[in-house]
Amino acid sequence: MPHRFVHGLASVLFCCFGYWSLRVTYAGYLARNPSRAAMEHAIQWAPGNAEYHARLAEAEPAVALAAIRRAAELNPRSSSIWMQYGTVAESRGDFGQAETCLLEAVRLDKTFAPRWSLSEYYYRRHDAAHFWPAVKAALAASYDDVTPLFQECWDLTADADAILRVIPARVDVLGQYLNFLVNERNRLDLALPVAMRLQEHADRGSATPLLSLCDRLLERGQVSEAVEIWDGLARAKFVPYAPLAPERGAVLTNGQLVQPFLEHGFDWRMAAVDGVYARSAGTTAPLRFTFSGKQPESCELLSQWLPLAPDRRYELRVRYRTGDLEGDTGIVWRLLDAHTGLELLRGSGRMMAAAGADQRFAFATPAGTRLARMVLGYTRVLGTGRINGSISLSEISLGFSE
Q: CATH number of 269-400: 3.40.50.1440, 2.70.50.50, 2.60.120.260, 1.10.287.1260?
């Protein structure tokens, strides 16, 4: 008898388990449809599933408050449900309940999402007193693109120091904020303190926003600031060069042409020109430009920013060789004052055809010169056709002359 009873009980339990398993499975099938009717039907089959109540709140605004409240009752440990509850309450003007829900989400979940939601709530309410500590906590926990939070900070205040105080000493967040100031707000003046702070905590990933700032400073002719950024990267070994020293004549970068060009800051920039094939630096072979004869009549090939000292004499030295070229190649070095556009080489930088040459060009800087752009270019010589041949550069040096 006892044996028969145990078997009977087991059969009943098995049937009950199968029944509820089928209910849950069927409810899951119904919940694939996000409509109100489907979610209500799913809830009938699995009334204790908090997710279905939350999804019903998304599907039907008319019952959203009751549905999300029930979801919170069923799963009070879910931060996502409390965030959704806060959103629904805010949409109905119940700001006290909205704040309570978001604070509960923050208490339960130490990650970024609930803190972002809370800071955005205070931003929408123009509640600056609560916004600043909330956004500081959000930025400290962030792991994604937080540019919208920077914009909200600037919407609430123009006090750059107050904003900087909520930016954590984290490379990723500082780098994003630096890019925001440079690219979104065009505030290079405010970007410099951020760059200095970033350099204190820099890693290799921080080189990109710092190089971007360096480029913008050079475009504006702010040479001392650009040198400061560049030299900080050099001292930290985030660019493979020694720091610049304009006061000692150390103004050229990568003169041996052995490092791949960064195309930023004070390193070389190589132009892409139709009809000219360039074998880039960074190999044991020289940097070579091969002209097909179909290149433009005038074009730039290579350039570099130089932080020159004013009222000094310099010598530019170039080691090179040409192939299949004769006489005046039309390839020429130019040195242009960044402020005035003055040609510092005064037309003396022409590269003549040679099997091997060590060519030197002397020039002097005016009293106001602090930044110049050195350019290697090609212009078809009058009375000749476009060249078809090559030039290989093996070393370029520049420094004070005696």
A: 2.60.120.260
